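debug: dumping io for the single-chain case to check the tokenizer round-trip. Nothing else runs in this session.
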Amino acid sequence: MLLISSGEGTHGFQLNDPNGAPVVPNNSYAQGQAPVERSFTVGMPGTYTYFCTIVTCSSGHSAMFGTFDVGAPTENPGDRY
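debug: decoded output
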């Protein structure tokens, strides 16, 4: 479950699976708008990417992205998690 909101201005948000397909499709979120809950299912192991989709949102747009890794169900995560 994701809780998405904007602390300043209007931003977009999209979450893609390891193949680049949207898991949480692009939507925009404005400052002052109530946080939005989005559920998603992790369908495969790999690296998932999330990012702001509004290029003109602010001067910090190029830093508005991130990733997280999902392992296979039988994989022992060890000390990584």
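debug: round-trip ok. The beta strands are 2-4, 10-16, 22-30, 36-38, 46-51, 65-70.
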